[in-house]
Amino acid sequence: MRALRRYLAPVAACLLLAGCGGEPELDYLPPGSKVLAFGDSLTYGTGAAPEQSYPARLARATGWVLVNAGVPGELAEDGVERLRALLEQETPVLVLLCHGGNNLLRGQPENRIRKQLARMIELADRHEVKVVLLGVPKPSLLLSTADFYEELAEQYGLVYLPDAIAETLSDPALKSDQVHPNAAGYARIADELQTLLQDSGAL
């Protein structure tokens, strides 16, 4: 018996470690599930027709009831209270969070933006709603996603789409202006998000 315990202990430890090391997962969401796409102009779909925004494209691909709650020009600190109301009003089962771009354009300290996004994530958590986080790039010649998005994803164990927006806005053929995709750009973001949702179990 003692020998058996010596054999089973490391096996159990390996299984525990394997279980803890996986990527974040989501529950399967059937067609008809209500999902909230929350953000600013990148969510609203500025630069393309409403039916070409990434939430509209994702709704058609998944059959979800996808509420586009994008407000152009909104700052993250204003989004916190709006999200609080929407979580109670819409009662979604999932939030697609893409916010902070206007704060970055204004050159606000990244730690300040991070705190506002953390408040949004914690609001969703209090409503028992999972969050998928989309990274937003910093304004620069060579676009790259601000580091704090990955930090938030790791801290809160979120399913995370890191570079779809930065890579889209780095391609002139996918932009309507310097900070917004065109229809083809939103299609690319929607496709990458759909793949992420499939890989994480939501689809």
Would you give an account of this structure?
The protein is α/β, with parallel strands linked by helices. It is built from 9 helices and 7 strands, in the order αβααβαβααβββαβαα. It has helices at 2-20, 41-44, 54-62, 76-90, 101-105, 110-126, 147-156, 164-169, 183-200, and strands at 34-39, 65-70, 94-98, 130-134, 137-138, 144-145, 159-161. Strand 5 (137-138) and strand 6 (144-145) form a beta hairpin. Helix 4 packs parallel to helix 6 (110-126) and helix 6 (110-126) runs parallel beside helix 7.
The helix-and-strand class reads alpha/beta
Query: Helix fraction?
Result: 40-55%
Overall pLDDT level: 91
Major sheet: order of its strands? 2-1-3-4-7
What's the number of structural domains?
1
What is the rounded Rg? 19 Å
Unreliable stretches = 1-20
CATH class: Alpha Beta
Name given to the CATH architecture: 3-Layer(aba) Sandwich
Shape: globular
Topology overview:
Elements: H1 2-20, E1 34-39, H2 41-44, H3 54-62, E2 65-70, H4 76-90, E3 94-98, H5 101-105, H6 110-126, E4 130-134, E5 137-138, E6 144-145, H7 147-156, E7 159-161, H8 164-169, H9 183-200
